[in-house]
Amino acid sequence: MAEQRYRIEGMDCADCALKIEKGVRQLKGVERAELNFSTALLTVEGQISRQAVQQRVEQLGYRLVEDSAGTASEKTVEAFLPGLMRYLFSSRETRLALLGGGLIAISFLFSAVNLPGWLTTTVQLFALVLAGYPIARSALMNLWINRDFNMNFLMTVAAIGAVVIGEYPEAASLIFLFAIAEALEGYSSERARRSIQLLSGLAPQTALRLTQNGEERVAVDDLQIGDRVIIPAGERIPTDGVVSSGFGAVNQAPITGESLPVEKAPGDEVFAGSINGNTVLEVEVSRLAADNTLNRIIRLVEEAQASKAPAQRFVDRFARYYTPAMLVLAVLVAVVPPLVFGQPLLNLPDGTRGWLYRGLALLVIGCPCALVISTPVTVVSAIAAGAQKGILFKGGAFLEALSRVRAVAFDKTGTLTRGTPVVTNYRSVDCADGGDCEKCQDVLALACALERRSRHPLAQAVVRAAAERGLDGRYPPAETVLTLNGIGLQGKINGQTATIGSHRLFEVEHPHSDELCRWVESAEKLGHTTMLVCDGERVRGYLAVSDALRPESERVVRQLKGLGVEPVMLTGDNPAAAQAVGGQVGVQQIYAGLLPEDKTRLVQELRSRHLAVAMVGDGINDTPALAAATVGIAMGGAASAQAMETADVVLMSEGLNRLPFAVRLARLAQRIIHQNIAFSLVTKAIFILLALAGWTTMWMAVLADMGVSLLVTFNGMRPLALRDENGQKKG
């Protein structure tokens, strides 16, 4: 089945998206139709022409444009008033509404100068027809196509009812205010939506590629892996790649949220969308344009916006029943009191509102716009704010889940520590003086042969140490290497089954001297990680490895505690090393010597105590524990496609700096969602009571309803202005 993607213009709330989605889905040949209100992207699968889709969308009162990377106007955020004027004059519906509003103003002027009443009424009816035609047409087409009522239908009925009872100025004002308020909502939603679309404008469309004859300017989409491109000083990097020549600082804030430029040298990775400093870099392309880090971020963010938060799903279900219920209530209010209790149906000469008028006012109040927009605009803004700071939320559900987290479990190696340990000591049991003798070096060489093919940080530290001393070729790489349940490796070297592993493993399977135990325990008390080596016949010695703390670990743990989040350390390392690291960063709850299944079990136990628990790891080695947590958080996502795919939340930078901000952002978003829903429902309840008592007019009701919609929209955009711990609005 062919998949087509279109961008829809003219939507002002999530109810519009549901209406279009339902209408397109009914077209012959359509197998699937999904419209994401947050991104305004309509995805259609099936054998269906663009013309058929466009016709259906326009029938329902909206506009369809081809999906693209973004127009020039999308690459900047306009000032509010100029942008609003552009938006109002960009569609026929709002132009007609503005013309109708002008005619209403003229009719009021006619009344003020005592011109004939029929002239004033004619102008008001003409204004009503001009502003109301698009609304009525959309309402009738939706009723015909989708067989349901929407807000436009309620407003059309209310306006016709007002004309029937002679409230001409009220009918015209009602429709004009509704049309303008809908446009204001649509523009506000567009501004929130554009914060994501801006990401697509970060990477340049062309690149300067090196050729045998010099340089040529080519489209970024034409670059192939292995091509070399020149990045002039001060320009954006067009592609993911590896620096092949040049030294300089690169501003990675658009991708990772890091506030300071990062020094780059040959061999270092750079990302599309980041900004080169004041030197020229030569970069070898490592990913195609469609798969670069920036495009992966945009794709994941759009998918995240399509994933509804639980609160949003509740609101959608509520609104589905709320609108028809309000329609039924309005009919009952208009009919029952006059028929059963003899109350007046029409307005009385003394100004008392009749029950028909009150029923019409209820129709106006019945619009669920404020309610249905209360959650999605907040989720969009929070996801956009996170993306701007180098934090990817995979969906509104994970944003909500992170707001409830009261404990965070950290892996140690590579998370709280740098993950680039170094060998600090190695010693053979045959060494008498503890110096770097030939026998000690042989222990390191044997360990290197076992660890040669492992990607674990400790293994790489052993291989680097052996290579620096010229010992990496003394033994051939081990064959048929087996991982021993996360606590060691075993393989054949020159026909002998050699083993490297933790003291815990050797205590059980490889007897060794008390003296070696004392050496190992002394190293572990200093916070070092130890590994023992056996050549297949006897235990040969041990190695000690130390991993430096990340500079931000202590500050991040302190900030999390200030947010009421309890930090927990889960590590496979020995208890002494774990306690040393925990003491430095301020973690009191430490679980050491864990196997992978132990970490998963402990995460589940933490969930039983705290209900919501986050697990922070590298997204690869800690996959089971990440999956077991309420929220799995991977760090270093900019350099790891696996990390971006594994976790629920991804910290793009190589560090923990953004973790407290992510928690604060999630909690702010959740507070705003609750505020918006409560404010919308309370306001509805108040105006329903006022309408039943006859104390409100229809135009006041629409003004209040749309005013609430705008307030919840602006409130929902507050996450975009949230500042990080350093007072910075953007990363």
Walk me through the topology.
Elements: E1 3-9, H1 14-25, E2 30-36, E3 41-46, H2 50-59, E4 63-66, H3 80-88, H4 92-112, H5 117-146, H6 151-164, H7 168-197, E5 206-211, E6 214-219, E7 228-231, E8 241-245, E9 248-251, H8 253-256, E10 262-264, E11 269-270, E12 275-276, E13 281-285, H9 293-306, H10 310-341, H11 355-365, H12 369-373, H13 376-388, E14 391-393, H14 396-403, E15 407-411, H15 412-416, E16 422-428, H16 438-451, H17 457-468, E17 479-483, E18 488-493, E19 496-501, H18 503-509, H19 514-525, E20 529-534, E21 539-546, H20 553-562, E22 566-570, H21 575-585, E23 589-591, H22 596-610, E24 613-617, H23 623-628, E25 631-635, H24 641-646, E26 649-651, H25 659-692, H26 698-716
Parallel strand pairs: 15-22, 15-24, 22-23, 24-25, 25-26
Antiparallel strand pairs: 1-3, 1-4, 2-3, 5-6, 5-7, 7-13, 8-11, 8-13, 9-10, 9-12, 14-26, 16-21, 17-18, 18-19, 19-20, 20-21
Task: Write a short abstract of this structure.
The chain crosses the membrane at residues 94-112, 118-136, 321-340, 360-385, 677-695. GO terms for molecular function: ATP binding; ATP hydrolysis activity; ATPase-coupled monoatomic cation transmembrane transporter activity; cadmium ion transmembrane transporter activity; metal ion binding. By secondary structure, the protein is an alpha+beta fold.
